[in-house]
Specification:
The protein is α/β, with parallel strands linked by helices. The chain contains eight helices and 15 strands.
Length: 280
């Protein structure tokens, strides 16, 4: 029966707030540390077991302040027992030299993009030297990377990190689909990515993130293909329909949990999520 204890668990990740100032578009997007902790706690109660974290400056611009990351993490560990905390090392609006500063606080995971890509108005730059440096810092601090795949070549970037001994042979990869000027959200492309992942990284776990209106359909494709995790949240999508914005991260998590159950699976507990992604 869908949702029964015998069903295969799925890690439910919530990306609570991105690096683009959007609070004016939707007041539900959490910006301050206190707002992020409260929004994530609500999402946790709705079933999320992994939180993807960005932080902001007072003017809502992207921040690399490691102490803000630490403050969010402290709040989540207090209020969301066992939840996986994943810091972003993304580069939009952040000094490349500062992107790894928060890793000293030893979150469970951190995002790691393995190549550059066009975004709507910028080039998201991830030169090989920076990728190697961030991977080295994650290894040093015992932080498990989530490999962000914006292009097929990025899978081979991950393979090079495995060959260099900077990440293990069972990485967790996320296919990001629907970013303007980058990889389109097209179902056959997901199959191509999965085929290549299974060929060169056969032990990898995986998920897929659909951006904007692509969020729900990419989640459906991922679940239909047995994904280890799914991702939702206001970072990726603030609109449920043409006429209605999402009320909260928790609402999006609830909808994602319904999709998981509709595929005969169930949302993983925090302990199951940690085991699935190779975390203590």
């Amino acid at each position: 029966m869908a949702g029964s204890r015998s069903a295969t668990p799925v890690v439910l990740a919530v990306a609570i707030t991105g690096s683009v100032p959007r609070k004016a578009d939707n007041p539900a997007v959490p910006v301050t540390v206190a707002e992020q902790i409260e929004s994530t706690h609500q999402a946790f109660e709705a079933g999320a077991t992994l939180a993807h974290i960005h932080v902001r400056n007072h003017d809502e611009s992207p921040s690399s302040d490691p102490e803000k990351f630490a403050a969010v993490q402290e709040g989540l560990r207090k209020h969301c027992s066992g939840m996986i905390v994943q810091f972003s090392t993304g580069g939009r609006g952040r000094d490349p030299a500062a992107r790894g500063l928060s890793l000293k606080h030893r979150p469970d995971m951190a995002s790691l993009s393995t190549g550059s890509v066009n975004f709507p108005t910028i080039v998201y730059e991830n030169p090989a030297s920076l990728v190697t440096d961030l991977a080295s810092q994650m290894k040093q601090h015992g932080v498990r990377p989530e490999i962000e795949i914006f292009d097929l070549s990025h899978l081979h970037g991950a393979k090079r990190l495995v060959e260099a001994g900077l990440i293990d042979a069972r990485p967790h990869v996320q296919f990001v689909m629907g970013v303007q000027n980058a990889m389109p959200a097209e179902e056959h492309l997901l199959d191509i990515l999965l085929t290549e992942t299974r060929r060169i990284l056969p032990e990898a776990t995986w998920t897929a993130a659909g951006i904007g209106r692509n969020q729900a359909v990419v989640m459906e494709w991922a679940l239909a293909r047995g994904a280890d995790a799914v991702r939702t949240g206001l970072e990726d999508n603030i609109r449920l329909t043409k006429d209605r914005l999402a009320a909260s991260n928790a609402e999006l998590v609830g909808l994602a949990a319904d999709k998981v159950r509709s595929h005969g699976r169930r949302v993983a507990t925090p302990a199951e999520a940690r085991a699935a992604l190779g975390l203590a």
